[in-house]
Amino acid sequence: MRIELIDLEKMRLVVGLELDGTATVHTQGICDTRAAAALRDLADRMESGKPPCPCGSGVPTPTAVRQGWFASDFVWVDGSGGTWDLRVSYLAGGLLWHWTGRVDSQGAPLMGTGTGSFEQSLDVVRTLYAPVVVAGGQG
């Protein structure tokens, strides 16, 4: 899946880490020495227990995270504290919904139908097509 959310021409340093461990580094207007120093500084901050982003294992509890992304687990936390695993498909309103890899203008995940012909934010799907259940099981 390709997610086009980052304009590499607007970013000085972008690091991508694939699931298989392959890393890609894109630099714009910064030399390799400065990029390496920035990455070392970031690694030092993460190892010191003061990471620039929240860490956690598993799905967060509703009291642990407000609405937004828990990206390390591909989990969206909605406004009511419900967690949504975006790696699975959901059934709602007689349609099969899956995450498109994009977000709406509010930052909520955009969900597409199984046929790919219809797209709505997860917030809209929850509101208009409830109940929403994991495809093939309970959600």
Short descriptors:
139 residues, 2 domains, five-stranded antiparallel sheet, three-stranded antiparallel sheet, 17% helix
Please characterize this protein's 3D structure.
This protein has two domains: 13-47, no CATH class; 68-134, no CATH class. It is built from two helices and ten strands; from the N terminus they run ββαβββββββαβ. It has helices spanning 32-47, 122-129; strands spanning 13-17, 23-27, 68-70, 75-77, 83-85, 90-92, 95-103, 109-113, 119-121, 133-134. It has a five-stranded antiparallel sheet with strand order 9-8-7-6-10, covered by helices on one side. Strands 3-4-5 form a three-stranded antiparallel sheet, with no helix packed on it. The longest helix has 16 residues, at 32-47. The radius of gyration is 18 Å and the shape is elongated. The two termini are 24 Å apart.
From the N-terminal CA to the C-terminal CA, the straight-line distance is 24 Å
| Count of individual beta strands | 10
Proportion in helices:
10-25%
Count of separate structural domains: 2
Class inferred from helices and paired strands? alpha+beta
Major beta sheet, specifics?
Answer: 5 strands, antiparallel
Oligomer: single chain
Within the largest sheet, what's the order of strands? 9-8-7-6-10
Order of helices and strands: EEHEEEEEEEHE
What low-confidence regions span 5 or more consecutive residues with pLDDT below 50?
Answer: 56-66
Number of helices: 2
Radius of gyration: 18 Å
Percentage beta strand: 25-35%
Mass-distribution shape = elongated
Mean pLDDT: 74
